[in-house]
Write a structure and sequence with these properties.
mainly beta, six-stranded mixed β-sheet, 63 strands
Length: about 675
C-alpha cells in the first residue's frame, strides 16, 4: 500500500517561503514498519500492535493508531516517539456497540515528525462478534447468576428474582486480545462500560428469566407500563408518565404495574373497580398521570396546552398545594416547600377544586402549615388571606404573624382543635366567588381499604385483607393464577388440591373438575380449596361424587398445630382426586410444634368421616355402613366401635414420612374402602 505524505497548509506556506531564502530547510521523511498486526479481531478486543518508526532527517513527534468504522473514527491511541528507529508497542480498543454487523474496519497508522510531516497507511481488520461461552448476571447486592447461551447471541438465566432489581451483566474474556466486558445502563439503554446498573423489572416477583442479546443489546424483562394501551415514558428509575385526555367516568386500565392491587388510589381523581381498572372522577380535561412505582401511587397534574396548568383570572386552570403537614399517598411523602413536588388539586366542578385528606394518614391531626398557589409548580399567584377565606373551625387561614400568628395564606389548625385519626377531610376551594372560599367537610371515617387479590382474573372476597375466598369452577389439571399475590414460594398449598411448581411458578389444580371455593390466607400463608354446591359446602351425592368431610384428633392442616377436632366449622373436605375417590395426604409429625405439611400425628389418630360439613351421614366401618379397612392397611389403622378410624394396636407412623389416606367409593357409598399407606 502506498504511503501518503501530508504537510498542513498553515505550516507548508511559511516553510515554502523560507525555502526561497534557505535552501537547507529539511521537512523530513517519517517511515514505519507495522508488525504483529492481526487481520481479524472481535468487538471488545484490545488489538495489539508493534511499529518500528524512524526519520533519518528530523526528530519524530507522535505515532497514532486510528480505528475507523466506515468513515467514522471510533478509537485512537497516541504514542510519543522520542527515539528514531525504535519499536513502539501499543493497543487500540475495538469498541463494542449494539446492532453493528460483522465487517471490515480500517486501522490507520499515522507517524508525524516535529515539522508536522506525516506518513500514514491503512490496514483492513476483519471484526466479528465474540462467541461468549456464558455470561454472568451480578446484582447490585453482589449476587451472581450464570447465564447460559440459549440461541444465537442470546443468553438467559431463570431464577427467583425480586420484582424489581438492578444489576450488571459481565462477559468473560474471549481470545488472547479479549477483555472482560460489563454491560450497564445509560440513557435508558444497555451500554458496555456504562456505570449505571440495568434496572430489570417483571410484572411480579418470583421465578422469571433475565435475558440479554449480545448483538442487539436487547435485555429483558423490562416491564412496559401502560394506561389504556398508552405506554408511559420513563422519567427516572421509579417514575414514568403519560398525558391523557379524560372525561369524568372514563375507565382507565393499567398494564404492567407490579402489585397494583396494593397501590394507593387518590380519591380526588379515581375510584378502583372490582376488575382492577380505575374510574376517573375529576372534571373532564387534559391530565398528566405520573406513576410513582416506589411510593405506589399515581400523581396527577392538570394540563393546559400540554404543560402543567396555572390558575387563570377567570377561576379556571389549576391550584397547587405546597407545604408541611400533608402528603400523598402518605405523610411520608409530604411536598414540603419544594415547588416541584407541589400537589395539584382536582378540579371537580366549574372553578371548584378539591383536596381530600385523611387524619393521621395524609394530613397531620395538628400542626399543619401549607398553602395554595396558582402558578404551576411555582411560588407565583399565592392564595393569601385576601384571595381565600374560610369559616371552618377546623382549618383556618393565616392573616400574618402580627394578626393571628401565622404567615399570610398558610393553613393552620387553631389552638384547642385536633383533627380525628382516620377521619376523611375534604378541602374544597370554590373560585366562583371573590375572594375564593375554602370549605372543610368531615366525610366520616375512611372505609376499609381493600387490597384485592385476583384468582384467574376474578377478584377474591375479603373483609380484612388477610383471608380471601372465591367460589368458582375449576377444571382438573388446569392452571390457577393468583394476581397481586407475591411470595408464592412461601405459601403452603394443600397438596391434595394444588401442586406448586416453584421452578416454573405454576400452580396446578388436582381434583376432579367442579365447583370449588378457593381460600387464601395471607397471614398464615396457606392456599386451600373445598368442594361447593352453589355457594355452600358440597355434600356427598348418591352416586359417590361430591364431598366427604373429616373431623377428629390426630389430623390437621396445614400442620398438627391446627387439628380439626370435633368443631363442625373445622370439618375438612377431602379432595376427590378421581371420580368417587377421595384423598388426604400428609407427613407424620408430633402433636405440638409440628412443621407445615405434617398433617398426621405419629402416635395417635381418631377421626371420623361424614357425608356433609356437620353431624349426620356418618361412615361407620365397625357397623359395616359405608367403609371397610382396605387390604394391606390393617397394620396401620382400625375402626373402633363408634366408627372412628384409629391407629391399629401398637402402630405408629414414622415421623417425617409421607402418608396417603384414601377413601374409595367406586363400588357404592355403602361399599367403600379406606386405606392408609406410606408413600
Amino acid at each position: 500500500m502506498k504511503l501518503k505524505y501530508f504537510l498542513p497548509l498553515a505550516v507548508a506556506l511559511p516553510a515554502m517561503l523560507a525555502s526561497c531564502s534557505d535552501d537547507d530547510e529539511v521537512l523530513g521523511n517519517p517511515v514505519f514498519n507495522y508488525t504483529d498486526a492481526s487481520e481479524t479481531a472481535h468487538f471488545g478486543d484490545s488489538l495489539e500492535f508493534t511499529i518500528n518508526a524512524s526519520d533519518a532527517e528530523v526528530p519524530l513527534s507522535t505515532l497514532k493508531a486510528q480505528l475507523f468504522f466506515g468513515d467514522e473514527m471510533v478509537e485512537q491511541t497516541v504514542i510519543r516517539t522520542k527515539v528514531s528507529g525504535a519499536d513502539y508497542t501499543g493497543k487500540i480498543y475495538i469498541p463494542y456497540f449494539a446492532n453493528v454487523p460483522d465487517g471490515t474496519a480500517t486501522l490507520k497508522v499515522v507517524l508525524q515528525n516535529i515539522n508536522f510531516t506525516v506518513s500514514e497507511k491503512e490496514y483492513p481488520v476483519r471484526i466479528t462478534h465474540p462467541d461468549f461461552p456464558y455470561l454472568t448476571l451480578r446484582t447490585e447486592e453482589g449476587q451472581e447468576y450464570r447465564m447460559e447461551k440459549t440461541g444465537a447471541d442470546l443468553y438467559s438465566v431463570s431464577e427467583r428474582f425480586p420484582q424489581k432489581f438492578k444489576g450488571y451483566i459481565i462477559a468473560p474474556k474471549v481470545g488472547e486480545n479479549g477483555n472482560e466486558l460489563t454491560f450497564g445502563y445509560e440513557n435508558s439503554a444497555v451500554v458496555i462500560g456504562a456505570e449505571g446498573a440495568i434496572p430489570f423489572s417483571s410484572a411480579k416477583g418470583g421465578r422469571f428469566a433475565v435475558e440479554l442479546n449480545t448483538r442487539t443489546f436487547e435485555a429483558a424483562p423490562f416491564t412496559v407500563l401502560k394506561l389504556n394501551g398508552m405506554e408511559l415514558t420513563s422519567i427516572d428509575d421509579n417514575t414514568a408518565s403519560t398525558d391523557l385526555t379524560l372525561s369524568t367516568g372514563d375507565v382507565i386500565t393499567p398494564e404492567g404495574f407490579s402489585n397494583f392491587g396494593q397501590w394507593w388510589i387518590d380519591p380526588d381523581y379515581f375510584t378502583r373497580n372490582d376488575d382492577g381498572s380505575l374510574s376517573f372522577t375529576a372534571k373532564s380535561g387534559q391530565y398528566r398521570i405520573i406513576a410513582d412505582q416506589k411510593m405506589q401511587y399515581f400523581r396527577v397534574q392538570v394540563l393546559q396546552g400540554g404543560s402543567p396548568a396555572s390558575f387563570q383570572a377567570d377561576g379556571t386552570g389549576a391550584i397547587w398545594a405546597i407545604g408541611e403537614g400533608f402528603g400523598k399517598p402518605s405523610l411520608a411523602n409530604a411536598p414540603g416547600w419544594t415547588t416541584e413536588a407541589a400537589v395539584c388539586l382536582a378540579p371537580v366542578a366549574d372553578k371548584v377544586y378539591q383536596l381530600t385528606l385523611v387524619g393521621g394518614k395524609t394530613i397531620k391531626t395538628s400542626g399543619i402549615n401549607f398553602k395554595f398557589f396558582g402558578e404551576a409548580l411555582g411560588w407565583g399567584n399565592e392564595f393569601d388571606d385576601a384571595k381565600l377565606t374560610t369559616s371552618s373551625p377546623l382549618i383556618q387561614i393565616g392573616a400574618g404573624t402580627d394578626v393571628n400568628g401565622h404567615d399570610k395564606g398558610n393553613l393552620f389548625i387553631p389552638d384547642g382543635v385536633t383533627l380525628k385519626d382516620n377521619e376523611i377531610y375534604v378541602l374544597t376551594i370554590d373560585c366562583n366567588a371573590t375572594p375564593a372560599v375554602l370549605t372543610v367537610t368531615e366525610a366520616g371515617e375512611q372505609p376499609f381499604e381493600e387490597i384485592p387479590v385476583f384468582c384467574n382474573g376474578t377478584k377474591m372476597t375479603t373483609g380484612d385483607n388477610a383471608v380471601y375466598t372465591l367460589v368458582t369452577d375449576l377444571a382438573q389439571n388446569s392452571t390457577v393464577i393468583f394476581d397481586t399475590l407475591d411470595g408464592l414460594e412461601e405459601y403452603f398449598f394443600d397438596p391434595d388440591f394444588m401442586s406448586y411448581d416453584s421452578d416454573n411458578d405454576v400452580i396446578t389444580f388436582l381434583p376432579v373438575s367442579g365447583h370449588y371455593q378457593i381460600t387464601v390466607n395471607k397471614l398464615a400463608k396457606t392456599v386451600g380449596a373445598q368442594r361447593f354446591d352453589g355457594n355452600s359446602p358440597a355434600t356427598l351425592k348418591e352416586d359417590g361424587t361430591g364431598a366427604i368431610y373429616m373431623m377428629g384428633w390426630g389430623a390437621g392442616s396445614p400442620s398438627l398445630d391446627s387439628q380439626f377436632g370435633w368443631d363442625t366449622g373445622n370439618a375438612y373436605g377431602l379432595a376427590e382426586i378421581s371420580p368417587k375417590v377421595y384423598r388426604f395426604t400428609g407427613y407424620a409429625g408430633p402433636e405440638k410444634g409440628s412443621e407445615t405439611g405434617q398433617r398426621l400425628r405419629t402416635d395417635y389418630i381418631s377421626v371420623k368421616f361424614f357425608h356433609q360439613k356437620g353431624w349426620g351421614g356418618e361412615f361407620n366401618p365397625s357397623q359395616n355402613t359405608g367403609l371397610t379397612i382396605a387390604a394391606g392397611s390393617e397394620k396401620l389403622i382400625k375402626a373402633n366401635p363408634d366408627g372412628n378410624i384409629e391407629l391399629a394396636a401398637g402402630a405408629t407412623l414414622e415421623e417425617g414420612a409421607l402418608y396417603e389416606l384414601t377413601i374409595d367409593l367406586s363400588k357404592g357409598n355403602n361399599s367403600g374402602t379406606i386405606s392408609l399407606i406410606k408413600k
